[in-house]
Design a protein that fits this description.
Elements lengths: L1 H12 L15 H8 L4 H7 L4 H9 L1 H10 L1 H6 L10 H18 L3 E7 L7 E5 L2 E5 L4 E6 L5 E6 L8 E4 L3 E5 L3 E6 L4 E5 L8 E7 L2 E6 L3 E6 L5 E6 L5 E6 L3 E6 L3 E6 L5 E6 L7 E7 L4 E6 L3 E6 L4 E7 L5 E5 L7 E6 L4 E5 L5 E12 L5 E7 L3 H5 L11 E5 L2 E5 L4 E7 L1
Antiparallel strand pairs: 1-26, 1-29, 2-3, 3-4, 4-5, 6-7, 7-8, 8-9, 10-11, 11-12, 12-13, 14-15, 15-16, 16-17, 18-19, 19-20, 20-21, 22-23, 23-24, 24-25, 25-26, 27-28, 28-29
Helix pairs in contact: 2-5
Length: 425
């Protein structure tokens, strides 16, 4: 044992290949800052999650901030954001990323990648952390890379009703049929539980905030389930008619109805806090999203109106006729308070100003550039008005049934077999 121990010590002390090994951590903070200062701001954000020491250098070093400003003067001069000198690099990069995202989405320039995602028509998509989830309409959910459009994995529901709604995070995928909730672990384990018919007669929509899932029902109730104990903890009467769409955060449930109103309720107590109504459009709500950073709730109606309420006052902020037909989907990047993407029956992807409701860009896909590839490349055309939209054949602008927004990109489904991702320049 003594000889073995000495041998291990001699090996450990012997330089590899005749020289000492070194790591990037031995370079020193000043040199690491100089290297990081040459990176794009989005690459910096990726580097910040590699390890704690890199995170500290990028987000807490004043030298890093000063070097980044010096190496990238065009960033400061071209940006509309004004940031005090003492502001941390983390806040600066966050504000810069959101500004670049806003400029990209409002530029009107986009390249579209389209691929066949399912053997049957699907009408729903989600996008988080560079991963896309597609499905609903059949019994299979599929994951794709948002960067390469490559297939990653799939999750199926054999011998069950078709999926109605879905969502996912880094650990699991949650799918809902009209009568069941199915949870897949990314590791492969699957859990299915049947709704008790006396509690959920017919589920229409679903949102979850771990560990609870909120089910919107056709009888106007929202049922809150613990996804792991499978128990129904609360039932909230939202409307006298079906709950057509939901939005949630850690504290609130917001449910839209076929009568054009939105009920706001406390998630923990079930207490109804208020009812939001349209000023002039008593039509059903089809889509909804909530921005917790600005306390603004957005909703799309069957008549093509986009609505915005300030939840601090429970009053409408703006209402605009954004589309001639029903708005099926709307979404925004989680930290973005400037742009809102909407889509609907007319097949036009529109970008709205979150503060005013102004339509800043309207896009449709035009002819293919590459038709012999698995992923077809197309260009998006900017539209200038309603007459231009009506002049485009319907087969060239299939309805947008769902959309999800990522950094400088939007993924859409169209109740067809294909999936599209719009990459904004």
């Amino acid at each position: 044992m003594e000889a073995s121990s000495s041998w291990h010590r001699s090996v450990a002390l012997r330089p590899a290949s005749g020289r000492n090994r070194s790591s990037i951590h031995s370079l020193g903070t000043d040199l690491i800052c100089a290297i990081f200062a040459r990176l794009d701001h989005l690459e910096l954000v990726r580097c910040s999650v590699v390890c704690k020491s890199w995170n500290n250098v990028i987000y807490q070093s004043s030298l890093m901030r000063d070097l980044y400003y010096k190496k990238n003067p065009h960033i400061r001069s071209s940006s509309n954001i004004s940031i005090p000198p003492e502001t941390s690099m983390k806040i600066y990069l966050k504000e810069l990323a959101m500004e670049q995202h806003r400029l990209a989405l409002t530029s009107g320039s986009a390249e579209v990648h389209e691929w066949t995602g399912h053997p049957v028509r699907v009408n729903m998509c989600r996008m988080k952390r560079g991963v896309i989830l597609t499905g609903v309409g059949d019994k299979v959910l599929r994951l794709w890379s948002a960067e390469s459009c490559k297939y990653l994995d799939e999750y199926s529901l054999p011998a069950m009703n078709p999926l109605v709604d879905c969502d996912f995070d880094e650990n699991k995928i949650v799918g809902m049929t009209s009568a069941q909730l199915c949870i897949w672990r990314r590791s492969g384990q699957r859990s299915i539980f049947q709704f008790h018919e006396a509690i959920v007669r017919h589920g229409l929509c679903m949102r979850y905030t771990d560990p609870e899932a909120v089910i919107g029902c056709d009888d106007g109730r929202a049922c809150i389930f613990d996804m792991y104990s499978r128990s129904c903890s609360r039932i909230i009467r939202m409307h006298s008619g079906p709950v057509t769409c939901l939005a949630t955060d850690d504290q609130l449930i917001l449910g839209g109805s076929t009568f054009g109103s939105v009920t706001v309720a406390d998630l923990s107590s079930g207490e109804r806090l208020g009812v939001l109504k349209s000023s002039f459009s008593p039509t059903g709500m089809k889509s909804m999203c909530f921005n917790p950073h600005s306390f603004l709730l957005f909703a799309g109606s069957t008549a093509g109106y986009a609505h915005c309420w300030d939840l601090r006052t429970l009053r409408p902020l703006w209402e605009v006729r954004a589309s001639p037909n029903v708005i099926y989907a709307m979404h925004h990047l989680s930290n973005d308070t400037s742009t809102l993407a909407i889509g609907g029956l007319d097949g036009v992807l529109r970008i709205l100003n979150q503060s005013t409701g102004e339509i800043v860009s309207s896009l449709v896909v035009n002819a293919s550039l590459e038709n012999n590839k698995e992923v077809v490349e197309k260009k998006a055309s900017v539209l200038s008005g309603v007459p231009v939209v009506e002049s485009i054949p319907r087969y060239l602008r299939p309805p947008i049934t769902c959309l999800a927004v990522g950094m400088k990109k939007v993924v859409t489904t169209h109740n067809e077999k294909f999936v599209r991702i719009w990459r904004f320049q």
